[in-house]
Amino acid sequence: MRPLMTLISLITFILLSTPCLASRWNLVLLTTSGLNGQLIPASEKEELNNGNMLRTFGGFARIQTVFESYREKFPGETITIATGDDLLGESIQEDQGKIVFGAMNLMGFDVSTLGNHEFDRGSNFLAKCLTNKKFPTVVSNLEINPSNRLLKHVKPYTVIERNLVRVGFMGLILPNLKMISNPGTATAVKSNLIEIARSTALKLKKEEQANIIVLLSHLSIEDQKTILEAVPEIDIICGGQSHKDILPGQELIARDAPTPGIMVQCGARGRFVGVLKLQIEDGYINKHDWTIIPVTASISPNKKTFDFIQANINGLQSPTVLATSTQPLNTEVKVIRIQDVPVGKLVSSILQDKFKTDVAFQNSGGIRGDKIIPAGPIKANDVDTMFPFGNTVTIIKVTGETLKQVLERSVHKLPESSGGYLQTSGVKYTLDLKGTPQEITVTEQGKPIGIRTKGSRISNIKITDKSGKYIPVEKDKMYSVATNSFLARGGDGYIMLKNSKDKVETFIKISKVIKSGLTIMKKIPVNNEITTLNLDRKPFFPTLKTAK
């Protein structure tokens, strides 16, 4: 991927500065995928032959510069799109989306859909945030209670006209929303995706006279492909859930229709801007060109957007140094969602020490950042980046049998990665990937309601006693667990925790506990212990796969 990004970076200047044959195209879609509230550029370490260097990517003000360059080249022909998971970050709790949506308003976004992270603080909170948004939000498979304020801000579809082309936009969100987020009881997600996609597309064609249909998707790549193959009325899918890049040449989906389907998306956190140029004749896409533009330090930030962000973000990000780490802390998705990592042990051990429980665990999907924090000072804003959801600590008592079911749930997707993979403290176990993975039963709305197959991948579970020695877990004995409120509610399919009757909600934010723990530590101890073991009792290190 590095050589490809370098090549794309080399041609970015040409793409942004060389006049195009604008007459060839009559519609240009500018797309982003999963901005994740990454208002300012993010840093990452790049390995070079002569050492390492930090480079930056993304940032709303840089993205705006890319947008403006294409709007100048194609006046009156561009539509700017966001595909959900834009509203994220600890600051959102305080500003109710004013900075993220305020910046997106300045950037000239025309339409967006919702992702699962927009619902992390509930539908009512999302409704408050959406009052700051000046462009339409479309989700076609979301049922909203008429009494909920969200109904005012979310529509099943919309039509935008550019250059005499009427473009119909619809949106689809993950059917398992209730499992992975917190939408509450006022919303329900319809899971019959193909039926909804077809009926909405036909309505846009027949009732709204749309020439082209675009689906803004917060679904898996597999679901998107299935929909394009089954619903020829949809011309284009702009995706955003999986954080994958669809590179030029990979976007066409063959199907039984006059034209192939086009499926595009461009990573996450503003790393790329996707540009889809279209030549439309007689209501059909005659030609297209798809490219992704790396948003690097070579792109100057738009001053108006930059000034807006700087004026509002100061004070929300604390530079206070909490502790010093002697080793890098890796929060990369491809690593943390598939195996034990030091940052996961650090977080879980702080929870266990603070609340004096037998065990502590944190879902890997709840540790954000997707980067390597270099060895050295760990700041308060590093913790805020890792814990943007506002989850609080919950103490639960479970039997040894329930603890086994929790661990079975943690590893059920391996060797594929999962946000539900647990980073643990105080527990050690043996993993056999040849064993039967746990399966849960979910409703049509994606709500988990029970365990269908218990699973047989986990054995030899041990926890630490007061002396720090590992002792076997007893099936019927009760054990105390410190975890987050998301998992305690049954998030990520942990239905066995939701059903636990012996739980105490502390109402103390995870981020606050971690900050306090780091301050006490001052120097973070090295903990490379691997507590997930193979049958031969050696550490479990799976072959890494990209998270879905």
UniProtKB/TrEMBL annotation:
SUPFAM superfamilies listed in its UniProt record: 5'-nucleotidase (syn. UDP-sugar hydrolase), C-terminal domain, Metallo-dependent phosphatases
GO BP term (any one): nucleotide catabolic process
Residue ranges constituting the 5'-Nucleotidase C-terminal domain according to the UniProt record: 322-498
TM regions (residue ranges): none
Keyword Transcription belongs to the record: no
Keywords, ordered alphabetically: Hydrolase, Nucleotide-binding
Alphabetical list of Pfam families matching this protein: 5_nucleotid_C
Record carries keyword Repeat: no
Xref: InterPro entries: 5'-Nucleotdase_C, 5'-Nucleotdase_C_sf, 5'-Nucleotdase_CS, 5_nucleotidase/apyrase, Metallo-depent_PP-like
Superkingdom of source: Bacteria
Gene Ontology molecular function terms on file: hydrolase activity, acting on ester bonds; metal ion binding; nucleotide binding
Family to which this protein belongs: Belongs to the 5'-nucleotidase family.
Protein's recorded name: 5'-nucleotidase
